[in-house]
Specification:
Blueprint (H helix, E strand, L loop, with lengths): L5 H14 L20 E3 L3 E2 L3 E6 L5 H14 L13 E6 L4 H11 L7 E3 L3 E3 L2 E3 L7 H8 L5 E7 L12 H18 L2 E7 L9 H4 L5 H5 L2 E7 L7 E8 L5 E14 L2 E15 H5 L14 H13 L4 E2 H10 L4 H10 L3 E5 L5 E4 L3 H8 L15 E2 L6
Parallel strand pairs: 3-9, 3-10, 4-5, 4-8, 8-9
Antiparallel strand pairs: 1-2, 6-7, 10-11, 11-12, 12-13, 14-16, 15-16, 15-17
Helix pairs in contact: 4-5, 9-11
């Protein structure tokens, strides 16, 4: 607007000031600021007081890796590059995985000090019990979590649940994530938000592949990512996709393995391997096309690649698969056809009464997808599995 009339300008500014009125604004002179170094939990990867995003395709073990990092922190162990972690407590909220049959067994498998891991449970208002909602309950959590001594890491899985509005709108995402950012700053702990890569983004900048608004990756000071390489050993890659506070390249190979942590309780854990060099775009460019899915492939091809990724580390509950497929924009019909094509075994567990999917044999997969899957555990000897097959 052309303000040639100063009276009109003054009137408009007065109206704006009334709408946004505050008592005062502080100004800070740079000469009065004492510089501080980044307080690293894991130098170059996890920074205390900072917000991080951890993204990747479904089935690459993002939650399992996060559990492995939590284990390292609770034990004061060594990160994949040999750096020693300071001992700290970890706080976890999951909107998808069960505390009893998924998260705690994985913590045990990774060797975590369980006394230093805390799960976020229900909330209480006017004597009513409600599920914790990261979109509305972060202030109450801040008060409660302030009593945890040496809190080093907060894991939120999935981070998109923190957005009550449209997760594709930058403004709404930034406003929704601000309480989470402030949580990390006030309690001086790293915050790790887990999310997915969007389908069909191969070859794009990793920041553009994070599901939802670009604000998720933009607001994060560090973005971590996972992918699966196309080599003979079918190794997975854990890497840095972005960093505003350090280097933004390089990563580590890792495998997802299965073991029995208690009688009849099988779960997955991560074992890290060699360091790898290169930018995230280079490291993430090829893996998602190796099965013929992604851009240019059919919906069923995409679903096959999705299921191989998801189940290569072991069996998984049918409901969890459906949720992951929905996040990856895979229809139920494509999922069902892919399941039949890959000869996936579906069985009901006597332990929890849930249905589980597992890859039945690697020859079918390799013949159909030209893949080299060498770490598939069919768990055929599990004593508590009912082999009645459920029709999906």
């Amino acid at each position: 607007m052309d303000y040639k009339n100063l009276e009109v300008f003054d009137a408009d500014m007065a109206s704006y000031s009334d709408a946004k009125k505050v008592d005062d604004v502080s100004l800070i002179c740079a000469a009065d600021v004492t510089p501080e170094a980044i307080n690293w939990l894991w130098n170059g990867w996890l920074a205390k007081g900072k917000f991080h995003i951890f993204a990747g395709m479904a089935g690459t073990g993002k939650t399992t890796i996060s559990i492995a990092l939590a284990s390292i922190i609770t034990n004061g162990g060594k990160f994949p590059d040999g750096q020693k972690s300071p001992v700290g407590n970890v706080l976890i909220w999951s909107g998808e995985d069960s505390i009893k049959d998924t998260l705690t067994p994985r913590l045990i498998a990774s060797g975590a000090d369980l006394s230093k891991v805390h799960f976020i449970g229900d909330t209480f208002k006017n004597k009513e019990i409600q599920s914790f909602d990261p979109a509305t309950d972060m202030q109450a959590l801040l008060v409660k979590a302030s009593s945890i001594k040496d809190l080093a890491l907060l894991i939120i899985d999935p981070i998109v649940n923190a957005v009550a509005g449209d997760s594709h709108k930058n403004g709404e995402v930034r406003r929704a994530l601000q309480p989470i950012v402030e949580f990390g700053e006030k309690l001086n702990c790293a915050v790790l938000g887990i999310t997915h890569f969007s389908k069909g983004g191969q070859g794009k900048d990793p920041m553009e592949r994070v599901t939802g608004s670009l604000a998720f990756a933009a607001l994060a000071r560090v973005v971590l990512a996972t992918a699966k390489t196309d080599d003979e050993k079918s190794k997975r890659i854990f890497c840095r996709a972005k960093s505003n506070v350090g280097l933004d390249n390089g990563g580590f190979e890792y495998d997802i393995n299965q073991k029995e942590v208690l009688q009849g309780i099988f779960t997955s854990y991560v074992s890290f391997g060699d360091a790898v060099e290169g930018s995230a775009r280079e490291l993430l460019a090829e893996p998602d096309n190796r099965f013929g899915g992604g851009e240019g492939g059919s919906a069923v091809d995409d679903a096959k690649a999705f299921l191989i990724e998801l189940l290569s580390g072991g069996e998984m509950a049918s409901k969890s698969i459906e949720n992951e497929a929905k996040e990856a924009d895979i229809s139920k019909s494509s999922l069902r056809r892919a399941k039949n094509s890959l000869n996936i075994k579906v069985s009901k567990s006597k332990l929890d009464g849930r249905w589980y999917w597992r890859l039945f044999n690697t020859e079918t997969i390799e013949g159909a997808q030209h893949a080299h899957i060498n770490n598939v555990n069919t768990l055929s000897n599990m004593p508590n599995i009912n082999t009645d097959v459920m029709e999906f």
